[in-house]
Amino acid sequence: MKSERRAFMLRAALAGAALPATIAVRLTPACASSVRPPHRVSGVLAPPRELWITRPEAQESIRAVYWAGGILQTDGYCAINRIYRDLRAGAQRPIAPALLHLNYAMQRAVAGHWSPRPMILLSGFRTPHTNRLVGGVEPNVHFAGEADDYIYPGLSFEENLQLARLFQFGGLGVYPDRGSLHKDLGPARTWVEYGHARAATVR
To answer: Is the pTM of this model over 0.85?
Structure first.
């Protein structure tokens, strides 16, 4: 029943009205050249998908349309790749579109149940070196651009956790000491971590 409810909520969140256009962003040639044209879904006209992301550590915030007309949008996608970069290493990589679609669904649910607000991104792509510095486990889905650590402002930690559980399709990390959560596209699993001590995994 849980998996059916999650699938229903994801479909409902993704099937919505058009969102505002993206802000202007400056692209790097390297990012633009890294975007591979995706397969266009024939006969499907879906509304554009925009993400609103704030990265406090970098003092950056973007609203970017990354998907429109069934196609990945280069400008918005590159802007998201940049804000997801490893700040310590100054490195970035393409972020998995499936993770962005999950973020979009969650952001629509937040806007519908509470009010529109950005996702606060605390960690996105990580190099192995940065991962070791922050005490992350290896291998790590952050390496592949398939994970992020985040929180939605203005919601209690419990409300954030309930939202995360509703939309959980892969890994869910709960960090009460830091007041943040982790989600990824890896195998389904849940853990709670205080400091660097990880509690037993909960299915």
So the answer is: no
CATH code at position 133: 3.30.1380.10
Domain that holds residue 130: 2-198
Report the number of distinct structural domains present in the chain. 1
The verdict on residue 98 lying in a domain is yes
Q: State the helix-helix crossing angle for 74-83 and 97-113, rounded to 10 degrees.
A: 90
- β-strand pairing of 171-175 with 189-194: parallel
Model confidence over 146-201: pLDDT tens digits? Answer: 999 999 999 999 999 999 999 998 999 999 999 999 999 999 999 999 876 555 44
Backbone angles phi, psi at 30, to 5 degrees: -65, -40
Alpha-carbon distances, residue 65 vs 31, 106, 116, 148, 175 (angstroms): 16, 15, 15, 19, 30
